[in-house]
Write a structure and sequence with these properties.
- This protein is mainly α and 83 residues long.
- It is built from two helices and no strands.
- The chain starts with 29 loop residues before the first helix and ends with a helix.
- 10% of the residues are buried.
């Protein structure tokens, strides 16, 4: 019966490719900042509705909703980059 050839002794074992850039952790202020932005944005919108469109800034009018949503969106975008 013929024998198998076996493995080539010169072939290197598999090595995992190296990453080009190490993932760095976020600074310590990152998580409290995005949580604060999301809470302030939510409170801005709630205050606008509860006070019958007079507060937080009456001169802005309906743009108060835009300010609240921008704050919420900024906090949400920060959550996407959180490590």
């Amino acid at each position: 019966m013929p024998e198998s050839r076996g493995r080539d002794k010169k072939a290197a074992a598999y090595t995992q490719p190296q990453r080009s850039k190490a993932v760095e952790p976020n600074p310590t202020w990152w998580a409290p900042t995005f949580v604060t932005l999301m809470i302030v944005g939510l409170l801005w919108i709630v205050v606008y509705y509860v006070t019958e469109y007079r507060y937080p800034v009456s001169a802005l009018g309906a743009w108060n909703l835009g300010v609240g949503f921008v704050l919420l969106l900024a906090g949400f975008v920060m959550t996407m980059r959180w490590r």
